[in-house]
Amino acid sequence: MLRHAAAALLVTFSLGLPAFAADTVPPIAYKERTLANGLKVYSSVDRTTPNVTVQVWYGVGSKDDPVGRSGFAHLFEHMMFKATRDMPSETIDRMTEDVGGINNASTYDDFTNYYEVVPANHLQRLLWVESQRLGSLVVDEAVFKSERDVVKEELRQSVLSQPYGRLFYLYVPQASYTTHPYKRPGIGSIEELDAATIDDVRAFHAAYYRPDNAALIVVGNFDEKQFDAWVDTYFAGIKRPTKPMKQVTAVEPPRTQPGVFKGYGPNVPLPAVLMTWHAPDAASADAPALTVLDAVLSSGKSSRLYNSLVYEQQVATEVYSDASLPQQPGMVMLGAILASGKTVADGEQALLAQVKAMRETAPTADELSEAKNELIAGKLRERETIDGRAFALGYALRTAGDASLANRELAELQAVTAADVQRVAQKYLTDNGRMTILYQPETARPKGEVDGAPKPPVVASTKYVGPVVTLAPEGQRAAPPPVGEPVIPVLPKPAEKTLANGLKVIVAKSSDLPLVSAELTLRTGAGADPQGLAGAMGMTAGMLTEGTKTRSAQQIASESEALGAILSSGGGQESSAVGLNVMPEKLPAAMAIMADVARNPAFAQEELDRQRSQTLDGLSVAYQSPGQLAGFAAAPVIFSGTPFGHVATGTPASLPKITTGDLAKLHTAYFRPDNAILVLTGDITPEHGFALAEKAFGDWKAPAGPAPVRVAVKPSAKPRAVVIDLPGTGQAAVTVAKAAISRGDPAYYPGIVTNSVLGGGYSARLNQEIRIKRGLSYGANSRLSAMRTTGLFRASAQTKNESAPQVLDLIVAELTRLVQTPAGAEELKARKSVLIGGFGRELATTDGLASILGNLALYDLPLTEVGAYTGKVEAVSASQVQDFAKKNLDPAAVSVIVAGDAKAFEAELKSRRPDLEVVPAAELDLDAVSLKKTGK
Fold first, then answer.
1. Any alpha helices (H) in 252-316, and if so which ranges?
2. Strand-pair partners of 903
3. What share of the chain is helix, strand, coil (3-state, %, to 5)?
4. Which of 26, 248, 567, 930 allows an S-S link to 560, with CB 3.0 to 4.6 Å?
5. DSSP strand E in 157-315: where?
């Protein structure tokens, strides 16, 4: 992991605040140079990782979209993964995913960043790839139309099918700006995407994708001198255009009086209120104070908005604030999704009171210290991975214009005073400068009221007359450079010990970065829910942090967040857990709180009422999302008649029945040391970890009698076909599911390789057929979740409602192909690399390693599996994959669950599955075998 280096920029803190010392937050050591063609190059060497991240940050984002072509920067992000002069489409995936790496990209208002993480011996190849994308991208009609269809599905999935998608993606920017192009939604609109032509796309590429608008950032294990030579070889020859760069010069006029924007959407279960104000750019001297203000408002459960609106007044179920300032003057936002029964007027009044308090009263010393500790600890977590460090440099460069801000910002945050926070609140959060956005269900729209959002402008297409790159004939293409010698990873060596009370403790020193993860796992989850009380065990686990016999819920939040710690608790299907992530010097104090919440919960009635209300509000939102609805239905469909045959998080019918007595009874029965596993990972030695475990948990006494018997689940439900009808939703979620193998099954490794072939990644078969070839979905995947005595297989994709039957056909066809035809050698090698690379990246973080070790212990597997994983994956043969598919993924034995607007696909699905059951969402009862409310 990250090491101190002499070349690093040193950060010193001069204020005597009770926050972390400067020398505990290592700066990012990097080198910088600029090529003659204007390309900026940043490099940072880390010899402790076997990987390298290659990132290119282009200074073009959504604000640069042409008028009438919103969403263009984002559309082009997709096209950059296709062909170049020397690389056919999908070659980038072959050189990243197929060797155990990852690739992705994201579009912001001011930039688009492309990033890969690969084994370090593939660095030269990736530099060649990025030079190809920059210098010789193929922009053709077929790719343009295909990716436009994919982007439309992304828009439907992220915006139109989500209850609050329209609010955050569309209405916030449209309401907050009148002139500056920040007003245009980055994801665009279907109308503007449809209006675009190939000439528009080529002109956009020529205008912005040029070396003097790009920054190459590489972090990982490499030789600096060799790296510089490769950069010169592949990038120095790319010509800098003579035409000046297009720049956004629009200036947003000041808001001189408060405004109100009213927005509506289908399937909105709870109203929302957001408020925005104009704010400075990221390079402003006020940026650090606004960042701290943002943290005081909404960072954690002890923040002002959460404490007031969610906890005390219970007027909101979720609260937000944001002061992520962009390159040009931007905005500050705060808001709330309201609790059931509350009105937009209630929310507006509560938010305005908090704004007024922020202007009139400076943060207390405790508030200020806590906010800074949370911010600095967050920056440290960002630096845990090589891609996180590269992102920090790129973000600082593209927003503030200076990569070194990634190191300076720590000192700048520490220098912020309470008076600074109050000053920026008074300066920016003014009454006249406020825009209030009221978001309600379509049914609340007054008769005759029209949309406040502007209609997309109709603009003629550009005529492009520049050069056009085409894919070279196969014999004329430049070959990619060779792969270098592999870097052998150094795996952590966990140590384990069982305390006298039966608590199993596992410690693995995995990093010198000052972070430690502690995870206490109980070997009991929702399978122990009493009959009719779905969600009881999950509520028991979730309530642990909501008060103990000596600490209130607010004290727990305040004390843990003051340490910069992340403390959480929750339950799953067959386990419950308390998790902690904190810096080592704060670990003893944080573990004392962790032990208290695990061992001594109060289960106060008022806290149960509060948590139940929030959970029910959350379910009302989730029940309007097709993807989540289909996910909820899987348990009662697949595991009916077993302890797993209900929704682990509970239902609107079961949650009101749960009492504090139920919680206390479950805690007494299952939260005991001989039913628990404690894992500590990160910057901690086994000796120190065992000592801390003894101090925090050594006097935790196990009740008389043996440890609880763990449930054995043997599914026997017949396959079903179910449609959950959600009228008006923007997409259908298509899921194919069946019971699967246990984690201890000898076929586990063939099983995960089989799943990797089918749907375990971008280049797996499902995504190839559904997204890449046909543009029917933003993504299609499958998952094999192996548990202690059973498992669950799921394949899923979201698509426009009318395409649901076609997507189902494609999923079934790929299952059939797996059964009938062995996977080829190259495909099998690539899909194994995906698993091995993903496993390695998970091991590289403290939380990831803790999760891996905890799961091994949960399933009674030896910790040596960490070292054996790669060999066992590599040993799987094509015949084992086909045999696993025949025995476990028979298409005739799967259940089908589709959630969406049924009128668009019901008849066609019925022709495929005559046993189709249609359940209106309004009549859904996930506690019932029929999935329908009684009497319906």
1. 287-298, 304-305
2. none
3. 45, 15, 40
4. 567
5. 214-220, 259-265, 272-278
